[in-house]
User: What shape does this take?
Amino acid sequence: MKFPGRAQAPAPNPLAPGTLVILANANSTNYTVEPGQHVVLGRDAASNIILDDASVSPSHALIARLGPGWLVSSLDADNPARILDATGRAQPIVKQLGLRSGELLIGAYQVRLYPPPVADPSRLTP
Assistant: This one.
């Protein structure tokens, strides 16, 4: 039941905390990234997550799960990973970027980063 004027707790995330979702060609693949874990995304066979697309660099981006969110780094200055801003425009990630959650573009792939759930929903402010 909803009460006017009261803040509603966010809907629970059906994905595990720290989930990274890769979207391409109407298909999605979920990866769980543990706290402190670093993942390299790229075209090279040595990458943790291989993205098979000519527009993806051999080692394109480093994504780490740190604290309550993510740290994203572009590994190829000439072909940076991009983040979709609030207006839906893709902005290059020039250096490291800390995020609670977000949506990235790596070549033709969308990468969604989901945050861990709020520990105590009663602490949300109205």
